[in-house]
Amino acid sequence: MAFVIALTVLFGALSLFNIVLTVGLVRRIRGMDAGPSPVTAPPAGLPAVMRTAGGQVEAFESVTVRGETVSERFLSRGPVLAGVFAHGCSACHELLPGFLSLIESEGYSRDRVLVTLVGRPAELADDVRQLDPVATVVVEGRRGTVARALGVKAYPALAVIDAGGTVRASGPGIDSLSAAVTESV
Questions:
Q1: Is residue 133 helix, strand or coil?
Q2: CA atoms of 76 and 157, how far apart (whole Å)
Q3: Coil, helix or strand at residue 85
Q4: What would the pLDDT profile of 123-162 be if each residue is shown by its tens digit?
Q5: Which InterPro entries does this chain map to (predicted)?
Q6: Per-residue pLDDT tens for 11-65?
Q7: Which DSSP letter does residue 132 get?
Q8: What's the pTM value of the predicted model, to 2 decimals?
Q9: What span, in angstroms and rounded, lies between the C-alpha atoms of 45 and 66?
């Protein structure tokens, strides 16, 4: 009889341990973003998020959310503010209101702002609604043509690009663009 009691106690202890591990795992999973795991902006001192100042934007062609074709010729309109944001990227979500404020405060017109949203169109519908009135918006997959042409390696990625397709300034935040934005408006 003592043997049965010992086995019951051991089984109960193992069951309790299993429950504790399961609860911990569930909490950890809930803490993760539900979307795809995009590469986020690297901490200071790590490689750039996209082409750096002096870099040349490669040729590209894509279709905007309005069905218009956009290519590297878009950059010939003068200094262009470019932004690349990904679905599921918390840093992108936090930066978007500041990016919209920058467009408004610096007086950028829609034909001088190019935004690339990375993800599925259904996931990005709210961002498209916010950005479409003030920017030329492209929605593409992770390795889309616009992001490749800009040399994007992490999100968010912002840049000011001159009429010749040369990057004036780039980085993961608005502060990375300060001097170039003021000069370009």
A1: coil
A2: 20
A3: strand
A4: 999 999 999 999 999 999 988 999 999 999 999 999 999 9
A5: Thioredoxin-like_sf
A6: 888 888 788 778 777 777 766 544 433 434 444 555 689 999 999 999 999 999 9
A7: T
A8: 0.72
A9: 38
Question: Contact at 8 Å (CB) between 169 and 176?
Answer: yes
Distance in angstroms (rounded) separating the CA atoms of residues 101 and 96: 9
Q: Two tokens at 91?
A: 């840093």
Tokens linked to 48: 């750039």
Per-residue tokens: 109: 């017109």
Q: Hey, what are 73's tokens? A: 């010729």
149 neighbors 57 (Cβ within 8 angstroms): yes
Peptide bond into 121 cis (omega under 30): no
Residue with structure tokens 């100042």? 53
Task: Kindly tell me if the per-residue pLDDT of 75 is higher than 80.
Answer: yes
With the C-alpha atoms ordered 183, 133, 62, 153, is the resulting torsion angle positive or negative? positive
Q: What counts of helices (H) and strands (E) characterise the chain?
A: 5, 7
Token code pair at residue 19:
């429950």
Q: Which two tokens stand for residue 115?
A: 């935004």
